[in-house]
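REQUEST FORM: STRUCTURE PREDICTION
Request ID: SP-0412
Submitted by: Lab K.M.
Chain count: 1
Length (residues): 114
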Amino acid sequence: MSDIEIRDDRAAGRLEAFAAGEVVGRVEYFVLDAPERALVPVHTIVEPAHEGRGIAGSLARELYALARREDVAVAPLCPYVVKWAERHPDDAPAADPELLRAAKEWLVANPERF
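STATUS: Completed
RESULT:
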């Protein structure tokens, strides 16, 4: 994946994968503030022409690395990130059930965001 660069666009709530200057994949997320600060991935999208290259996995790995650097949790609601976390427990600690509940409540209360 050396030809892929991943950038965090916090203002837009997107972790984006770039190849040759174009966005080829992204994780859409929001930042939850309570009951604790957490990154909450909601959707993972890879452009069809770039599927099967490990981009989604690279995005999930970087999301958890970003959370570690910021010393915050990840509360995954995105089905892809949930599955990726199950396969990589050393890189993706399980989210507290209360945090997941709060993330789901935030999403229900803010349907226009996603």
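NOTES: Helices lie at 55-70, 79-87, 97-109.
Reviewed by: T.R.
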